[in-house]
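Pipeline run #58 for the internal structure catalog. This entry was flagged by the ingest filter as a single-chain record with no existing model, so it goes straight to prediction. Upstream metadata was stripped on purpose; only the residue string is passed forward. Reviewer on rotation: M.T. Logging verbosity set to normal.
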Amino acid sequence: MVNDGVINFDVVNRGALGWRVSINGEDDLPSFPTREACAAAARVRARRHHQDYGVSTRVRVPRLDGTLETTVWYSAPEEFLDAFNGSESSQEMRWACDQYGHVPR
């Protein structure tokens, strides 16, 4: 697994043990009877961790085919700004504003 600085809160099915939240590969103790209940708990944990520590967190829930889909991503401010400033659309908008003599704030 590639460590990209984001803490993953994954919803995993452990068969008879029920649904669990796996935090960066380590299962959390409480189990849940449904995927939806586990996903709700993962969202709460990820949001709280993001608020308390200021790091990026994401919640990933398995699709029917087993692949993990990111349903929520709480981004640290510097990551958000880096993504915004480096995007192609952002650069195009700045170029267009420069052409009209307006500098966005």
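catalog note: The CA atoms of residues 26 and 51 lie 21 Å apart.
catalog note: The chain has three helices and five strands.
status: ready for reviewer M.T.
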